[in-house]
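Training component of the fellowship. As part of building independent skills, the fellow (R.M.) carried out the full modelling exercise for a liganded target. The chosen ligand was 5-O-phosphono-beta-D-ribofuranosylamine. The inputs are recorded below so that the supervisory panel can assess the work.
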Amino acid sequence: KRVGVLISGRGSNLQALLDAAGEPDCPFEIVLVLSNKPDVQGLARAAAAGVATAVVPHRDFADRESFERAVTETLETAQVDLVCQAGFMRVVTGWFVARWHNRLLNIHPSLLPAFPGLDTHSRALAAGVKLHGCSVHLVRETVDEGPILGQAAVPVLPDDDAESLAARVLQAEHRLYPTCLKLYAAGRIRLQGETARADSAAEP
Ligand code: GRF
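Fellow's submitted model of the complex:
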């Protein structure tokens, strides 16, 4: 499967996907990295991996949908099959969700449905949860909702602050996203309504 990755910054999840794409028998290839911001580290990571890049500045467009149409045109030119948001800091509209229905993935740094939205690590600490983590899901119109393709849990330790907890979750993200994308790209996760189920043999 041809994958396009949408980023806005550092791109450490992108790097994990690029590394996985280089492994033997990987069922996906990253064919385009698209950022809504110029000169971000993720673009340098893509270039270093020999992957095509594009910048589509959201500020250049009058509204969200026209930005999304430009992003879609760029993805279509690259003949992308699946779109992965990885640290992409733009909320997409129902138009984009419908255009890429069940072909648009996102990673969120919490165990959804807990802690949708921003600042998930400080909120997890404030809530006193003992387990935190990350979720890969199909994107739906409501932010951070949608069928969950996979999750990874990490312990919250007594001396954690938001920074140490975020770092632990990020390491889990870098394992989870490639695992989920491999399963999904290989058709080994099935959708039953709004519930995703991995084939029994599909152990991450
Ligand atoms: C990650 O924590 C991800 O869960 C969230 O934003 C961060 C992106 O980091 N969406 P990076 O750009 O992949 O390094």
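The panel noted the following from the submitted structure. Residues 9-14, 86-87, 107-109, 134, 170, 173 surround 5-O-phosphono-beta-D-ribofuranosylamine (CB under 6 Å). DSSP finds six helices and nine strands in the chain.
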